[in-house]
Amino acid sequence: MKYDFDKQINRRGTYSLKWDGGELIKQIGLTERYDEDSIPLFTADMDLPVPQPVIDALHRTVDHQIFGYTIIPPEYYEAIQKWFAEKYDWQIAVEEIVYAPGTVHALNMAIKAFSEKGDGVIIQRPVYPPFTNAVERHERVVQNNALVQNDDGDYVIDFADFEAKAKDPNTTMFILCNPHNPTGRIFSNEDLRRMSDICAENGVTIVADEIHGDLIRTGQTFTPIVKTVENDDHIVTLTAINKTFNLAGLHCTNVIISNQKMRDLFTAEIGMSLPSPFTVSALIAAYNEGQEWLDQLKVYLDENLAFVKQFLDERMPKVKTYIPEGTYVMWMDFSGYGISADEVHDRIYNEANVILEDGKMFGEEGLDFQRICVPSPRPLIKEAMERIENAFADLN
Ligand SMILES: Cc1ncc(COP(=O)(O)O)c(C=O)c1O
């Protein structure tokens, strides 16, 4: 079937964090202004309908009328196995799959399972803020191997620094984000292998958050880190249907751990988590029948990203950005205006009434940046961009 992603679906009144969560996001300091005229493009969920087979499967589950404790049936594991085998040539054994109610939760449990208080944990800022929060909440120490922007504007890894941090006897863990949020970088197989080798040599566990791996640009390829190495004994991979199929509200993450000792440590930490019946039906339908939708979605995302890039190039050329290789977030550098980050924020959030995410949330490297999520109907993205343009009209 043909999906109409341009159609705007009113999400107000649906308990949506983006559209109904104004008070909460004001409380956490994302914005001072939020009202019924706000355009929220801050969080990475899509204002787009999910695949029809998923909707049908959820309807069937509703029709059962009873929503009791739920098992994870063989079809659940088979759907995961098929998806990763077909797309990534990654053969996953059933026992390697551990269900977790969400990726951030899994990440927190992984930190507890694989490191001790006071240990160093490498992350690569600017990076998805819960990485820093999770490390600090559990009283581990952030070892920031900051990504560096080269002369072409591409974010690259500072390997000398990475190696020095991995060699520090205090460092026991590395949280990889690939594709990387917010820079949109897909690390090369060579980079992945090199990071893995350094970690293996130094007894550093890798927790690889790959939940944006299915959402890459046409023509790009994504390789799970475990497929780039000979030995994946030190690697734990976080996969999820939440980003790929816009099902974040169903909290469905699958953690892949081939090393049995590590798996035991992780399951001991996470305890017995059971999914909801909605989660089980949605995953089976999404992985077995969601590819047609995903193919169309990716084209739409490519076009949205190209739209924003062209808009900025033509109408706000002082803002530097690029098309990300993966993810649907854009990382926009506002330093060209020569005004403070606070003033940039004020113009976008208070004047234009568009809610993005300040780059500084991702680490000090992001101070002059804003992150915009673009998986929304294009008319909405267009309106947001026009509002932002107007708020900077005197400086363009
Ligand atoms: C890299 C990354 N990891 C994890 C998450 C959140 O995942 P979950 O909703 O499964 O906790 C996000 C959401 O934006 C993300 O970008």
TrEMBL record:
Residues 47-388 form the Aminotransferase class I/classII large domain. It is an enzyme of class 4 (lyase). Keywords: Lyase, Pyridoxal phosphate. It holds the Pfam family Aminotran_1_2. GO terms for molecular function: cysteine-S-conjugate beta-lyase activity; pyridoxal phosphate binding. Its cofactor is pyridoxal 5'-phosphate. CDD domains: AAT_like (cd00609). NCBIfam families: C_S_lyase_PatB. This is cysteine-S-conjugate beta-lyase. It comes from Texcoconibacillus texcoconensis.
